[in-house]
Structure formats: structure tokens, C-alpha cells
């Protein structure tokens, strides 16, 4: 016999707020059974697994349409069609771009943590996300109290 959970128990097990669990149910991602005696919703371990999947997919930047398509593939065992291949290729390109952005951000933050961000250069985090390299050296130095990009003041050495 499968163990079922109340909505609160299922939300806790999935690591999502109860309101999120209700939202996933309204979207059709979850279909909890009804208790035959009370009529209350009862969630299965599979519902909990699916709720975790939806939350993680959203956190990774997938839209609800993407999530619905993934769940349909999972439930129906649909073989990838040419249209699906196009969507997959676009998502792969998007993920590659996000990974590159995250790698640049990590490098910039690691540099700040190591003290490399101190001095008169532009913000390395901003530079990492705008795909520019912060200027350093004598050419980047400006006179004291001169305006810098975004209204920041640049310190003199």
C-alpha cells in the first residue's frame, strides 16, 4: 500500500511552500488522489518527486511551458520529434550561455574574495556580466573626485 500525505506533509517533503504545491496542482502538474471518506487531497511520493522537479526546473530558468513538456515526456514516454529537437537545441544554447555567465561571475567574485577587486578599477562583477574586462593601470586612473561611470567617485592612490 502506498503511503499518502496531507498537503502540508507533501509540501514539507518537497521543500516547497504549501501555496506552491497548490499552484502546481492548479497548473496540472500534480493530481493528488482524494480520500474516499473525507474528500481531502492526499499526495503520493510521486507527487512529491514531481513537485521537487518542477521547483528545480524553475530555479534553473525553465518556464512553465518547458516544465509541462518535460512532464508530458516523462508520463507519456514520447519519442523526441523534430519540433522537440528544436526546443531542446534552443534550451541547450541557453544553458551554455548561462553557464558561461555563471563562470564569469564566479571568476569575478573569486577575484574580489582574493582582494583583486580593491583599487580604482571598474566593478569586476559588473564587468563580468557585461562581458567587458575592467580597466586597470595608469590609463584607468582618474583624478580624485572626478565622476566615474554610474556616478561613482574614483579614489586616487
Q: How would you describe this structure to a colleague?
A:
The chain is mostly helical. The chain has six helices and two strands. The protein has helices spanning about 5-15, 20-25, 45-60, 65-75, 80-115, 125-130, and strands at about 35, 40. The protein has a two-stranded antiparallel sheet with strand order 1-2. Helix 1 packs across helix 2 (about 20-25) and helix 1 crosses helix 3. It is flat.
Strand count, sense and barrel status of the largest sheet are:
2 strands, antiparallel
Order of helices and strands: HHEEHHHH
How far the N terminus sits from the C terminus, by CA atoms, comes to: 73 Å
What is the average per-residue confidence, as pLDDT, rounded to a whole number? 77
Number of helices: 6
Label the structural class: mainly alpha
Hey, roughly how much beta strand do the residues contain? Answer: under 5%
What is the gyration radius calculated from CA atoms? 24 Å
Spell out the blueprint of helices and strands:
Layout: H1 7-14, H2 18-26, E1 33-34, E2 41-42, H3 45-59, H4 64-76, H5 82-113, H6 124-129
Amino acid at each position: 500500500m502506498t503511503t499518502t500525505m496531507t498537503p502540508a506533509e507533501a509540501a514539507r517533503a518537497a521543500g516547497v511552500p504549501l501555496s506552491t504545491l497548490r499552484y502546481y496542482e492548479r497548473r496540472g502538474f500534480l493530481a493528488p488522489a482524494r480520500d474516499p471518506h473525507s474528500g481531502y487531497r492526499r499526495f503520493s511520493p510521486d507527487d512529491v518527486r514531481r513537485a521537487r522537479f518542477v521547483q528545480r526546473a524553475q530555479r534553473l530558468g525553465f518556464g512553465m511551458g518547458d516544465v509541462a513538456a518535460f512532464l508530458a515526456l516523462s508520463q507519456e514516454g514520447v519519442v523526441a520529434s523534430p519540433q522537440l529537437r528544436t526546443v531542446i537545441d534552443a534550451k541547450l544554447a541557453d544553458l551554455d550561455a548561462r553557464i558561461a555567465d555563471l563562470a564569469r561571475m564566479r571568476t569575478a567574485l573569486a577575484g574580489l574574495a582574493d582582494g583583486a577587486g580593491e583599487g580604482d578599477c571598474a566593478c569586476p562583477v559588473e564587468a563580468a556580466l557585461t562581458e567587458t574586462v575592467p580597466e586597470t593601470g595608469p590609463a584607468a586612473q582618474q583624478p580624485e573626485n572626478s565622476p566615474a561611470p554610474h556616478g561613482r567617485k574614483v579614489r586616487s592612490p
